[in-house]
Every structure is written in C-alpha cells, then in structure tokens.
Amino acid sequence: MRSFEEIPDIADRIKRSKMELQESGFYWAPEWDSQSCCDQDYVNNFKKGWESRQTEVDELQKRLDAAIYLLPSIKAENDLWGCDQVEHQIELLEQALKGGSDEIQNR
C-alpha cells in the first residue's frame, strides 16, 4: 500500500505550502496565508482519516491471514474424510479469500 504522502493531491499541497511534519504527528505550514492554512487543514484532516481507515485495513488483513492459514488444515481434514461438496466449498472459499469471488457473487 502506498503511503499517505504519495497521494498526488496530498503531495501537491504539502509541496505548495512547504509543510513539515511535526513531532506531534501533524503537518505545519510556516506561512499563514489563506492557501497555506487551507492546505494545512486539508492535509491534517485527510491524514487523520487515512490513519483511521488504516487501522481497519490492518484488522481485516489479520482476519484474512488467519483464514488463509487455516485452509491447508481444512483441506487435509477433507482429504482424509472426503466429501465432494465440502471440497468444492473449500475451493470457493479459497478463491474468495484470494479476491476472485465473481463466481460466488453470480450465484
């Protein structure tokens, strides 16, 4: 995932207003003209929202990683007991976890 500062609009505003990231975690514009103040507010508000969403993304990634980790053991258990319908469901789950869920959604 790209960093917050790599987003074109954010990068332009940081550069245009010569903003610096402070120890507090917020951006500060040294000039106090209306454009710099507007850019500073925009960037700091966007950054706060970005960080909030990143927390959600990280949590979802943990859940996804846990599900993918369990798939081999579920497959092995099914191979031992053998059930064609379960095997098909495992394949669909694996496909969905990898992002290829078109077949599942079209059912």
How is this structure best summarized?
By secondary structure, the protein is mostly helical. It contains four helices and two strands. The protein has one domain.
Whole-number count of domains: 1
* H/E series: HEEHHH
DSSP helical segment count: 4
Query: Which residue ranges are poorly predicted, with pLDDT under 50 across at least 5 consecutive positions?
Result: none
Gyration radius, rounded: 23 Å
Query: Could you give a short account of the major beta sheet?
Result: 2 strands, antiparallel
Helix content: over 70%
Strand order of the largest sheet: 1-2
Q: Tell me the overall shape.
A: rod-shaped
The count of DSSP E runs of length 2 or more, i.e. the number of strands, is 2
Span between N and C termini? 31 Å
The computed structural class is: mainly alpha
Average predicted local confidence, pLDDT: 82
Strand content: under 5%
Protein architecture, described:
- The structure is a single chain.
- It contains four helices and two strands.
- The protein is mostly helical and 107 residues long.
- The chain has one domain (4-100).
- A two-stranded antiparallel sheet has the order 1-2.
- The model has no long low-confidence stretch (mean pLDDT 82).
